[in-house]
Amino acid sequence: MSARLDQRSSQIGGKLIKHLFSASRAVSESTLPAATAHLVEIRASQINGCGFCVDMHTKDAAHAGETPSRLNLIAAWREATVFTDAERAALELAEQGTRIADAAGGVTDDAWSNATKHFDDEQLGALVSLIALINAWNRLNVITQQPAGDYQPGQWG
User: Fold this and answer.
1) Residue 121 neighbours by CB under 8 Å, 6+ apart
2) How do residues 142-155 score in pLDDT, each as one tens digit?
3) Would you tell me how many other CB atoms lie within 10 Å of the CB of residue 139?
4) Which of 138, 156, 144 is nearest to 1 (CA)?
5) Residue 54's pLDDT band (boundaries 50, 70, 90)?
6) Per residue in 16-53, pLDDT tens?
7) DSSP letter string over 27-51?
8) Which of 56, 58, 64, 63 has its CA nearest to residue 151?
9) How many CB atoms lie within 10 A of CB 36?
10) What is the pTM for the complete model shown?
11) What is the CATH number of domain 7-143?
């Protein structure tokens, strides 16, 4: 399988990707825990059916020390006992933020209120930005049918 389009080869695509990488770097430099960020990236990518991003983020998470048990349970996080309350709040916010079109009204007040119990304003800003960014990356990769499976941890910096 090959991609429909190499976004990096076009002027606009190259500019966009450069800016998305820059925005992603800003989030990674925040105080949002890296483990939480990995969980959010993986869950949104699972929901959006982005094999490229699931491959990349699960490999990066494992490389950073995430356990196979937790990685295998992300899709079933509600029933899993391996996630902290803060991670569960982030996963709920990520799911609702990713499924905006499916949920009349978007992110619920309850999900937001729960997230505010575990994250300060800077971390919430990073979390919201991360949810928006991973959804943008997912859409770029799904639309262009980026193949999954060949990613190496740290490949994109």
Assistant:
1) none
2) 999 998 989 999 88
3) 12
4) 144
5) very high
6) 999 999 999 999 999 999 999 999 999 999 999 999 99
7) HHTSSS-HHHHHHHHHHHHHHHT-H
8) 56
9) 23
10) 0.93
11) 1.20.1290.10
